[in-house]
Amino acid sequence: MSNDTKIILGIKDPNIKKLKIMNPLEVKGPLKVQALLDYRPKACTKCGVLNQKSIIKYGWRWTTVKLPQAVERDVKLHLKKRNFKCKQCHQYFLAETSLVQRNHTISNVSRISCLVKLSETVSMRHIANELNISSTSVLRIMRSYQPDIKTNYSWLPAVINMDEVKSTKDAKGAMSFVFMDGMRNEFIDILESRTLYDLEKYFNRYTKAAREGVKIIVTDMNYTYPQLTETVFPNAIVVTDRFHIVSSIMRGFNRVRVRIMKSYANSNINHKILKRYWKLLLKPNEKLNFNVYHNFTHLSGINTENSTVDYILSFNDELRQAYELLQTVRRAVKYRHTSKLVTILDKKNDYPEELETPLNTLREHQESVYNALKYNYSNGPMEGINNKIKVIKRVSYGFGCFSSFRLRIHLVFGIKKAA
């Protein structure tokens, strides 16, 4: 019975004997287990003298050890430890076990389970309740992971994805800088500031060979990150994320639609149509259905999605021009037609005012935009990592300390860096 109980509770120390469940019939409350820890010590833990009948048994002392849950119940082990006295140094010491660290009440199994659960997107309070420990203990166990986070300053991936995420209140900047390995899609690190000065200071810690090994930087149309190629990564080129190219034009088109919509009175049928079918206008043209007919609100008769869009575009020439521009950019990015994009970005073209701002931005990043059509790298994996970071913040009800925030992120994604 004692051995079966040890297996169930995960106790492997052979010196722990005589296990007994004190309240087997109770269905509520923690499961109370008693056990005995006794052995013959080889040496004194205080002075180190070998035990040649110089260490004598000197009574017992009761301790409590918190174990992981069993049968959906908290487990408290009341461990009766042998107390010893050394005749040489006249010091006293307790019997020790691999089940728990010295002067601790949380078992090593619980500590390992805590680190495993911290790698999941759950709150610390949830972990504390599952392991029958306090939230402070969970935080203390998490911070014990700090020495394992060691940056290898002699290596950087050939492709780096860069982005930012909302930081903590005590961080140096409002937004934190996040970067990852674009080849293996693995998280590397998060910094508490994204300013050019702080980024240069951080990346200059890496060896010259590591920085020269970076060939591609994938990012959105952020003003700061491309400047790193001038000072930190001399051999790198910048690739603009394709999603941000399309989304910038899409936002410009939507502003054109809103302006034209507001030119009509609220009671006007055109105003209602432009307000109701904005999603249909943002849908890729090749995905519009032209076979199935429906009754569309505010429109007479039955129509297809394709005919409905054609009818809406007939309201205004500027709206049609903006729509055709959006669809052309979308097709150019999808099918990698650089020549079409070159034609669109020509300054001789006359587009609605709302579209000039995103087009000027694309012109400023013209080289990196063309690189986006040339290479297959994108910031999609980086956006996935950012989304998971936001989930971590949400389930944790925020973080007041950036160091704890960074530790938790490293635990969730793990440290998998190349040597």
Describe this entry's structure for a reader.
- The chain is α/β, with parallel strands linked by helices and 419 residues long.
- It folds into 4 domains: 2-105, no CATH class; 106-144; 159-241 and 378-413, Ribonuclease H-like superfamily/Ribonuclease H (Nucleotidyltransferase, domain 5, 2-Layer Sandwich); 242-374.
- It contains 17 helices and 12 strands.
- The chain has helices at residues 2-9, 108-118, 124-131, 135-143, 196-203, 208-212, 228-231, 242-262, 269-276, 278-282, 305-313, 317-334, 338-344, 353-364, 366-374, 380-395, 402-413; strands spanning 16-21, 31-37, 55-70, 73-86, 92-94, 159-166, 175-181, 186-191, 216-219, 237-240, 294-295, 302-303.
- Strands 1, 2, 3, 4 and 5 form a 5-stranded mixed sheet that branches. Strands 8-7-6-9-10 form a 5-stranded mixed sheet.
- Strand 6 and strand 7 form a beta hairpin.
- The longest helix has 21 residues, at 242-262.
- It starts with a helix and ends in a 6-residue tail after the last helix.
